[in-house]
Amino acid sequence: MARTRPIMPAWFHRLGSPKGFYSMTTPWLPWLAAASLVLLIGGAVWGLGFAPADAKQGNSFRIIYIHVPSAFLALAGYYVMAVAGAIGLIWRMKLSFVAMKAAAPLGAALTLISLVTGALWGKPTWGTYWVWDARITSMLVLFFLYLGVIALHYAYTNGEAAGKAAAVLALVGTANIPIIYKSVDWWYTLHQPATIKLTEAPSMHPSMFQPLLVMIAGFYCLYALVLILNIRAEILHRERGSHWVVELARSRRS
Fold first, then answer.
1. Which bin fits 77, alpha (ψ -120 to 50), beta or left (φ > 0)?
2. Cβ–Cβ contacts within 10 Å for residue 194, how many?
3. pLDDT tens digits, residue range 52-63?
4. 54 φ/ψ angles, rounded to the nearest 5 degrees
5. How many other β-carbons are positioned within 10 Å of the β-carbon of residue 228?
6. Which residue, 26, 152, 161, 188, has fewest beta-carbon neighbours within 10 Å?
7. What is the pLDDT of residues 142-180, one digit of tens each?
8. 209-213 long-range contacts, Cβ below 8 Å, gap at least 24?
9. Are 153 and 84 in contact (CB under 8 A)?
10. Where are the domains of the chain?
């Protein structure tokens, strides 16, 4: 009996093509932009203006509303990049390497923000901007992994070869993610334990924790928005000679 291939939903195939992705995501952009704006402004005002000062750290703890969301997205964004690379290697979906290339600079920026805000937080807390702490060092490794993926995309003249090489590095680098997450449990470290755990109640008071959740949601919406915009820009660059891109450019000029 002949084997039949699993039937994928039509929307999945459409989302996997450059033209389909571009057209499908167009109506998403204003909603993501509005959600990002509302959540980030609301969370920032709530956390910076109305949350009480920490009993030990005072107002310096408020950098958590930037540091923690950026660190969350730096880790989650690496998985997004690595999964996109795996899909490109295994199923050779045309858009996968595009998504991986678009996610790399965004993840690098978030990792850098996490490192800088962590250093600014560390100065009043530890008395120094930098220590070779297990969590901080593994985050620095993450930043270099992102830079490596970016560099590989520009090291090859052949786009497919660049995508494959970058995907291999992205997949190898996923071993660093659990190290980052568990570093505060596996080694002696100055870095405080995780604020949010799925198996335990948060260590913060609700008046401080709730605006943090709002900021995390805002960062996720902003990440999705910028990632989609990056992918769309890369699609237009790669498909600039295609009939549908030419027609799109004509319709915008008219």
1. alpha
2. 17
3. 988 888 888 999
4. -70, 145
5. 20
6. 188
7. 999 999 999 999 999 888 899 999 999 999 999 999 999
8. 210/46, 211/43, 211/46, 211/47, 211/50, 211/51, 211/65, 212/43, 212/47, 212/64, 212/65, 212/68, 212/69
9. no
10. 66-239
Beta-carbon count within 10 A of 245 CB: 18
Q: Which two tokens stand for residue 108?
A: 């690098």
**Nearest 10 degrees: CA dihedral of 90, 92, 96, 100?**
60
- For the record, the structure tokens of 61 come out as 């703890």
Is a pLDDT exceeding 90 seen at residue 105? yes
Q: Write down the residue that tokens 């449990």 correspond to.
A: 185
Q: At what angle do helices 206-238 and 18-25 cross, to 10 degrees?
A: 140
The residue with tokens 């830079």 is: 147
pLDDT value at 12 more than 70: no
Global pTM value: 0.91
With a CB cutoff of 8 Å and minimum separation 6, the contacts of 160 are: 97
